[in-house]
């Protein structure tokens, strides 16, 4: 009996000595399991041909107006990427655009050597940052982001940066890039960026796709392949649809950076693209 107690004591001691990396790995694995469970549940709400009852096609929103029936689409497991259809209502999309319009400035990029924001031809959009929790609508959207991603936001421990609204006119784009950082300056506050939620605020007539060029796919098997621009056919592409949100992870479940998360915003060919980005960190982020 004493030997059994000693074995249990040794096991308990080894668990207490787990490193922070092991804790982070466990957290990422847990988040993956929860996302898989959410996706499994969402199968029951996938689009079908039969007519659904009215209450199952429209869901009440804590923000503005009503959102259409929500369902989750698996885009990729490497990198982990999912589309939440009808994540925002049309009114919420319009609200974010109108709120950001007076504050739009030329978009910048991060210098990998210094960590400073600099102007660059690789990113030609304009954008505006919104303060976290600045009004009722934004608080509701941030709470929804936390509920869908299982990453704390709109709470006492907020891991998310402020919403970043972007506008792309015809010809504007953002060349292939990573959302995670390669410098130490930008990881001092909140640590590394672990995930990104990209919300589409407008429909695009042509172009403007989000594409993962490093992902090996059978391009012709992609949904609506004929509607993709030349840029969108370079890899795994998601076509913007007003109200939808693309969630992808920049880190693997083992807490290492995922090079397959390389992505770009294709040039807009026809129309104006509006989007809103939420970057999420591995630790609490001080705004």
Strand content: 25-35%
Contiguous runs where pLDDT drops below 50 for at least 5 residues = 5-17, 43-61
Shape: globular
SSE run: HHHEEEEHEEEEHEEEEEEEEEE
Radius of gyration: 20 Å
Largest sheet: 8 strands, antiparallel
Main-sheet strand order equals: 3-4-15-11-18-9-8-5
Tally of alpha and pi helices: 5
Strands, count: 18
Mean pLDDT: 84
What's the topology here?
Blueprint (H helix, E strand, L loop, with lengths): L1 H15 L3 H23 L11 H4 E3 L5 E3 L2 E7 L2 E6 L4 H11 L4 E2 L2 E2 L6 E2 L7 E4 L6 H14 L14 E5 L5 E4 L15 E8 L5 E2 L2 E3 L23 E3 L6 E5 L13 E3 L2 E3 L2 E9 L6
Antiparallel strand pairs: 1-2, 3-4, 4-15, 5-8, 6-7, 8-9, 9-18, 10-16, 11-15, 11-18, 12-17, 13-14, 13-16
Structure in words:
The protein is an alpha+beta fold and 287 residues long. Helix content is 23%, strand content 26%. It contains 5 helices and 18 strands. Strands 3-4-15-11-18-9-8-5 form an 8-stranded antiparallel sheet, with helices on one face. A 4-stranded antiparallel sheet has the order 10-16-13-14, with no helix packed on it. The longest helix has 23 residues. The protein starts with a helix and ends in a 6-residue tail after the last strand.
Quick synopsis:
This protein is an alpha+beta fold and 287 residues long.
Label this structure with key terms:
alpha+beta, 287 residues, 23% helix, four-stranded antiparallel beta sheet, globular, 26% strand, eight-stranded antiparallel beta sheet, single chain
């Amino acid at each position: 009996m004493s030997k059994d107690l000693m074995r249990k004591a040794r096991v308990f001691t080894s668990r207490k000595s787990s490193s922070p990396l092991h804790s982070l790995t466990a957290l990422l694995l847990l988040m993956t399991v929860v996302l898989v469970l959410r996706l499994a549940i969402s199968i029951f709400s996938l689009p079908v041909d039969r007519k659904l009852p009215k209450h199952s096609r429209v869901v009440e929103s804590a923000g503005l107006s009503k959102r259409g029936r929500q369902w989750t689409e698996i885009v990729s497991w490497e990198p982990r990427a999912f589309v939440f259809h009808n994540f925002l209502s049309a009114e919420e999309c319009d609200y974010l655009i109108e709120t950001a319009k007076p504050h739009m400035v030329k978009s910048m990029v991060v210098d990998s050597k210094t960590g400073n924001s600099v102007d660059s031809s690789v990113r030609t959009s304009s954008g505006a940052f919104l303060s976290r929790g600045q009004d009722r609508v934004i608080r509701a959207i941030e709470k929804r982001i936390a509920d869908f991603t299982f990453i704390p936001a709109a709470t006492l421990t907020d891991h998310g940066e402020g919403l970043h609204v972007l506008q792309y006119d015809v010809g504007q784009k953002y060349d292939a890039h990573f959302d995670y950082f390669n410098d130490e300056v930008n990881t001092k506050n909140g640590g590394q960026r672990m995930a990104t939620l990209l919300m589409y605020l407008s429909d695009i007539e042509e172009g403007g796709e989000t594409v993962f060029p490093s992902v090996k796919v059978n391009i012709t098997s992609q949904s609506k392949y004929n509607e993709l621009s030349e840029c969108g056919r370079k890899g795994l592409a998601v076509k913007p649809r007003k109200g939808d949100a693309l969630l992808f992870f920049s880190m693997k479940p083992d807490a290492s950076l995922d090079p397959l998360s390389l992505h770009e915003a294709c040039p807009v060919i026809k129309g104006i693209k509006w989007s809103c980005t939420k970057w999420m960190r591995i630790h609490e982020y001080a705004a």
